[in-house]
Specification:
The protein is built from 15 helices and 21 strands. It is of the alpha+beta class and 577 residues long. The protein folds into three domains: 8-114, Phosphorylase Kinase, domain 1 (2-Layer Sandwich); 118-294, Orthogonal Bundle (Transferase(Phosphotransferase), domain 1); 343-575, paralog of FGE (formylglycine-generating enzyme). Strands 1-2-3-5-4 form a five-stranded antiparallel β-sheet, with helices on both faces. A five-stranded antiparallel β-sheet has the order 11-12-15-21-16. The longest helix is centred in the first third of the chain and has 22 residues, at 61-82.
Length: 577
């Protein structure tokens, strides 16, 4: 509280004599914020009353004075550690109005900051409906700063009171976190007892179970903010926060605004999952969603447009690719070991689950982004020739029915049927599935994930130079953001590639064995390459129901934490013996 005998005007005049108070902007648990003005500019100032009381360790006036000074330096150090893009700029610190007695010491911490005229709450309400392009920019700004503050280590920071009124917007529509009192060092948080929280914008586990805040609770608040940016209100806003939590859990999230893109609806729903384990695991995943949506287009790829203009149909294009570029794909079916000899040399079914497999023959191919895939990224280069030994690959991604039969559970987000691909499965959990599947077949390591090279070789039908698995018409071959209706779809409903593999592009990203390395293609061996050294990120390939067409290309690469789960990542099995 502000001491009535030491008015706020006097506090400001002692350290900022050229400024006068324009208005009070807001007040929170730790202090009040005011707009200041001098002859040239506006600033914001936060006034925080601080105090220390006498104790065994603080027995004298000098001890109390030292404690206040130490706290002041700690605050300065704290702000120094979080400063950077997306956080309000702090210009100066002052400690004024110090009053020392035998029992206590009191003072005012004065923090001079940049002034921003608007916050997200007022911005959305005053401009509703906010254009999609503006929401996209604001939300990406927020996700970037959240990713910067949170790095999954003991010194990471997490925001404990994330809400629209604490997010400031400048004249260029750039977003900043303004309530620095709500940024806490993650390793120092034990319970919610002394945290600064606003129930309407807080995750259910913090309110209902008083659990330790973390990235999952912050992502729930992020989902509420994203919903608010589109709808101008909270979901089930007429309910109190406890009833709202249960309505979100039991009834799901519904939208009134009709122009919200499907990828944003899916992201909001995943962020607002009642169970923390089903939310995105980190903000890098959210940024990937937002990057994919930014590249979305209602038209065709440049490659498809070229074909449409020339009047070449799919069959003619397939023949053209083989005739004009076939010399770049050299099938070598005799130099390396052949397939086992089942009754059908090209198909095999695993007896316990009924999982179907297709034989992928030996051969050479050019791995990476070539002329036939025009919209690639640097991590798909350099184009390089690779030789692959033959192997069996699952005809479909692993389904929820197959997962349940082996693991006995189903953590998928989209529990829509046994023939839907399993998702919300980490790389580590996929490996556990493969171990159990191998044991069911009386072999310790009969099955595996494909290497990244095996995956691309199989997806490209042993090296056909096509942008997507099976041809150039992505709508016929893959479930992606423009045709998936915001969820996974049953496997096997789109056209397969030339080997008979279904859904290898789109529907769900598919885990590979390799660790992710940005420059992996400069490190590859020429025979059966695999990256076996890395730092926790694994490769996934093929794009998903949430991806743009460009992410579903055969040469496209992605990464995710091996312990992370997402409702757009599944996997496919290979037999390695």
């Amino acid at each position: 509280m502000i001491d009535e005998n030491f008015p706020i005007e006097m506090v400001i005049h002692q350290c900022l004599p050229t400024y006068h108070i324009v208005k009070k902007i807001g007040e929170g648990v730790y202090g009040a914020v005011y707009q200041l003005q001098d002859e040239f500019k506006s600033r914001a100032v936060k006034i925080v009353p601080v105090a220390a009381e006498r104790s065994i360790t603080l027995s004298t006036g000098n001890d109390l004075n030292s404690k206040i000074s130490h706290d002041f330096q700690a605050v300065r150090k704290y702000y120094e550690s979080i400063k950077g893009e997306g956080v309000i700029e702090v210009l100066d610190f002052h400690l004024v109005g110090k009053q020392i007695s035998d029992q206590t010491v009191r003072a005012y911490l004065v923090i001079l900051m940049a002034y921003y005229p608007d916050n997200l709450l007022n911005y959305v309400v005053n401009r509703y409906p906010v254009p999609l392009v503006t929401i996209r920019q604001l939300i990406r700004d927020l996700a970037r700063v959240m990713d910067r503050l949170y790095h999954n280590n003991p010194d990471a920071f997490v925001i404990t009171d994330l809400k629209p009124s604490n997010l400031l917007i400048d004249h260029n529509n750039k977003l900043y976190i303004g309530d620095l009192g709500g940024i806490k060092r993650l390793g120092s948080i034990s319970t919610t007892t002394h945290l600064q929280l606003t129930p309407n914008w807080t995750a259910p586990e913090l309110i209902l179970r008083s659990v330790r805040p973390g990235i999952s609770s912050t992502i729930f608040s992020f989902g509420l903010i994203l919903y608010f940016a589109f709808e101008g209100k909270l979901p089930y806003e007429d309910m109190d926060f406890v009833k709202r939590f249960h309505a979100i859990r039991d009834k799901g999230i519904h939208f009134n605004r009709h122009d919200i893109p499907g990828e944003f609806k899916a992201l909001i729903r995943q962020c607002l999952e009642f169970e923390p384990s089903r939310r995105p695991t980190h903000f890098q995943d959210i940024l990937q969603h937002l990057t994919d949506s930014r590249h979305a287009s209602n038209g065709s790829t440049a490659y498809e447009k070229k074909v449409a203009v020339s009047g070449i149909n799919q069959k003619e294009m397939d023949a053209s690719i083989l005739n004009t570029q076939g010399n770049r794909v050299q099938m070598d079916t005799h130099a390396l070991p052949h397939a086992p000899s089942p009754s059908d040399p090209h198909h095999w079914s695993e007896p316990y689950t009924g999982m179907d497999f297709i034989w992928v023959p030996d051969g050479r191919f050019e791995m990476g982004c070539g002329k036939w895939s025009e919209q690639g990224f640097e991590n798909e280069l350099p184009l390089h020739e690779v030789r692959i030994s033959g192997f069996w690959m699952g005809k479909y991604p692993v389904t929820q029915g197959q997962w349940k039969k082996i693991m006995g559970t189903n953590h998928s987000c989209f529990k829509l049927g046994n023939d839907y691909p399993v998702e919300q499965v980490s790389w580590l959990e996929a490996m556990a599935f493969l171990k159990r599947l191998s044991q069911k077949n009386n072999h310790p390591d009969l099955f595996s994930l494909p290497s990244e090279a095996q995956w691309e070789y199989a997806a490209g039908s042993c090296g056909k130079q096509e942008p997507y698995a099976g041809g150039i018409r992505v709508d016929e071959l893959a479930w992606y953001i423009d045709n998936s209706d915001g969820s996974t779809q049953p496997v096997g409903k789109k056209r397969p590639n030339h080997l008979g593999l279904f859904d290898i592009c789109g529907n769900v990203w598919e885990w590979c064995r390799d660790y992710y390395q940005e420059n992996a293609y400069s490190m590859h061996a020429s025979l059966d390459p695999e990256i076996i050294v890395g730092e926790g990120y694994r490769v996934h390939r093929g794009g998903s129901w949430l991806s743009t067409f460009n992410r579903c290309r055969v040469s496209g690469r992605g990464k995710y934490l091996e312990s992370g789960r997402s409702n757009h990542i599944g996997f496919r099995v290979i037999r390695i013996k």
